[in-house]
Amino acid sequence: MSKIFTPTNQIRLTNVAIVRLKKGGKRFEIACYKNKVLSWRSNSEKDIDEVLQTHTVFTNVSKGQAAKKDELQKAFNKTDETEICKEILSKGELQVSEKERQSCLDTQLNSIVNSVAALCVNPETRRPYPASIIEKSLKDAHFSVKMNRNTKQNTLEAIKILKDHMPIERSRMKLRVSFAGKEGGGKLKESVVKLANAVEHEEWDEATLHLTLLIDPGQYRVIDELVRNETKGKGLLELLELKEVVESEEIF
């Protein structure tokens, strides 16, 4: 029986997501697990071994053709394939079918819309916009998700575009939450504090606890509902001020 000869620089892989990067006039590809590329780019997956099927850089994944060391050195100025894989993963283009691509775009857009709604307010009403308004405005502005960027990068771009189409600004809310200790006490306080970015002040006035919090706008409704439910409508929320977030500040 004759044997099938497979060249030593060929590796066969199945059920892969391919990320491609053109550099130095050549095409380089890496083989990843499906659904893991976007997780890596959004920082929800930090283990490179959970993303890469192999730490091999290819010139053609489908044909199993691995890149040669001299090709890597010429294009990337290094031959460490894990580091090159990370660069391709970060800068490359995810190769997917049209159906898969649309599904990924829809998922990414939903994440971006929710992020914008959680981080921004209408400066005229000092309240967050509903996600449905954000989504409609982005579509009206012809915003398109860039697949080679993570959710944070796409969200910042979305906010920048929206500013030309509607009153919107990134901000944090300073909120004063008050409720009686017997109406939730430690448990309610713990739940509320977990939803805040920071607790600026805490004081007791007889049996009533007053918390001054700094929160992302998207948490306002969550805290309001939590306090109302746990105190049976006896708790109080007061919006003290909006603190604008400048572009250089880290808000994610």
Uncertain segments are 1-8, 247-252
CATH topology of the largest domain: Hypothetical 12.0 Kda Protein In Nam8-gar1 Intergenic Region, Chain: A
Pairing-aware structural class of the strands and helices?
Answer: alpha+beta
What sequence of helices (H) and strands (E) makes up the elements? EEHEEHHEHEHHEHEEHE
Can you identify the CATH class of the largest domain?
Answer: Alpha Beta
Q: How many domain units? A: 3
Q: Under the CATH scheme, which architecture of the largest domain would be assigned?
A: 2-Layer Sandwich
* Overall form: elongated
| CATH H level, superfamily name of the largest domain | Ribosome maturation protein SBDS, N-terminal domain
Biggest sheet character: 5 strands, antiparallel
Percent range for helical residues?
25-40%
Mean pLDDT: 85
Quantity of strands, as a count: 10
- The N- to C-terminal Cα distance equals 61 Å
Radius of gyration: 25 Å
Number of helices: 8
